[in-house]
Amino acid sequence: MAQADFRPHAGLAFGVDPSRPQRYSLRQARYDAIAADISNWAAAAAAEGRRLSVLDVGCAWGVLLRHLQGKPHFDDIEISATDIVDTAIGKERYERFVVGDLRGGYPELPSAAYDVVVCEQVLEHLDELDAALATLCRLVKPGGRLAIGIPIFLPPLHLVRKHVLPLLLRLFPVRDLGTHDQAFSLASFRRRLARLPGMRERQVRGFRIVSGGLLAPLENHRWWWRFNRRLGALFPAACIEAQIILEKTRPAG
Questions:
Q1: Which of 47, 122, 202, 242 maximizes the CB count within 10 A of its CB?
Q2: Whole-angstrom Cα distance, residue 160 to residue 70?
Q3: Which helix (H) or strand (E) holds 157?
Q4: Distance between CA atoms of 193 and 186, rounded to whole angstroms?
């Protein structure tokens, strides 16, 4: 991997992320959280004399990579990435970069190749999930982890967003729904994940339960970020985003 060019900066989210000016941006807190976990897992791998292999599915402009660069065990991580389009940062800053659609299965990537697979804010853009979820599970090593992040709604609002709102907007096109083809509640998505063979849920957390608007200036304060993290842990279903971490079970014997 190319040498990290990260330097912490007070004007960036969590000192590394240029997409938001707030020091503790709640919108970007999901990346800080999973990056902290990956750093801890990398420390454990280093104690075993190896580096942690990570795959960032749908890396976009490299936000997860930036957050990882700010963590203490970044040098103990080998990170590869995929995206649906070719990006300059992919070629320059990852161990391996694959251009392709998650629904296509990434045949160029071997099975059980990664200690950690991250798929953050991708699945809601897909019109079909079965092939995508099967691919994510295939890529994780036994004993490894799969971290999935999605936007969520309180039920039954996810059903309104998925089925009713698109119909209304076809009749009255007053706005564009964007590129989200899926809408989930936390419960509906957890039920979907519970059907994945060989995967078990290890952690569920929510983000952005109280954020934005007039409260945005509070996101420059560590206490406000910590308070929201606590709320997200206690009431994940009430948040705007959820992050679920699964573990791939090891074969018996």
A1: 242
A2: 39
A3: helix 157-159
A4: 11
Per DSSP, 252 falls in state P
The full set of domain ranges for the chain reads 29-156+183-248
Contact 159, 183 (CB under 8 A): yes
pLDDT (tens digit per residue) in 9-25: 556 899 999 988 899 99
CA distance linking residue 237 with residue 117, whole number of Å? 23
pTM of the entire predicted model: 0.90
Answer whether 235's CB lies under 8 Å from 204's CB: no
Looking at per-residue pLDDT, the higher value among 211 and 38 belongs to 38
- The secondary structure element, H or E, covering residue 64 is helix 63-69
Q: What pairing do the DSSP bridges indicate for beta strands 114-120 and 97-99? A: unpaired
Which residue's structure tokens are 């929510």? 206
Residue 160 makes CB contacts below 8 A (sequence gap 6+) with: 153
